Every structure is written in structure tokens, then in C-alpha cells.
Amino acid sequence: MERTATCACGQLGVTVEGEPDLVLACNCLDCQRRTGSVFGVAAYFPERQVRLDGESKRFSRTSGALAFETSFCPACGTSVVWRSSARPDQVAVAVGCFAEPSFPPPTAVAWTSEQHGWVRFPDGVASNSKSAFG
Predict the structure, then answer these.
(1) Which residue segment(s) compose the domain that 42 sits in?
(2) Is residue 56 part of a domain?
């Protein structure tokens, strides 16, 4: 199976092969700021299954002991992919960039300690109050 995710203007895209190893909903304050929403959802794929097409800019940051490098479109600003030191051999793709309502739901939820009180995830989804499931 092959899927393509793109930024809002379509200039930056990523093609992935296969199913994600992890679909993570992260409630940390940094992901809230990165997305402009109350949480971010990422699909993690092995690096060898990911191909980036188009021009991107990078933003590096730390969150606690973890390092992150986000690739975003320089034209529209959409964060499309990122890498985390917690999962160094994988690439995270913003699930919303797939624009595919049937995309698999989160299998894990992280940083529930920073989750907005009104947010609810399905029963049975693994959750952790402070971890990104590294």
C-alpha cells in the first residue's frame, strides 16, 4: 500500500509505503503550538518507507530530553514530517496531511497530563501522561 500526504499548497509531499508502525496522538504543549490545535496526530513509518518530494525548511527544537526536527513547507508553512530522538529510525507524518478520513486511528495517546479537559480518545487506546512512547 502506498499513501501520499501533502502540505496545504501541494508543494511539499511525502509518499509512504505500508502501514504505520504507530499512530500517536500527542497532547504536549509543543505539539499544540506546532499544530495550532489541541493535539497533534502522527503516523510513524520506518525511514526506508518514506520519500519526501519538494522543497522544505527545517525547525529543530527540544522537549525535555527529546530532540525534534520538523520539515515544513516554506510556501504555506504546513508541518508535514518530523523526526524524534525517541524513534530515531522513523519518520513521523502528520496524519491530517494525508487528507484521508479512513486513515487508521491513534493506537496511542501521549502527554495526557497536558490534554485539554474536554478531549476524549476511544477506549482501549494506550495512554501515557508524560511519554511519547519512545
Answers:
(1) 2-113
(2) yes
pTM of the model: 0.91
DSSP conformation letters of 70-89? EEE-TTT--EEEEEETTSTT
Find all residues with CB under 8 Å of 72, minimum gap 6, and list them. Answer: 7, 12, 56, 57, 58, 59, 78, 79, 80
CA 29 distance to own-chain centroid: 14
Q: Nine-digit cell at 83?
A: 523526526
Please compute, for residue 122, the number of CA atoms within 13 A of its CA located in the half-sphere on the CB side: 9
Residue 98 belongs to domain with CATH number: 2.170.150.70
pLDDT tens, residue by residue, 5-58: 999 999 999 999 999 999 999 998 888 999 999 999 999 999 999 999 999 999
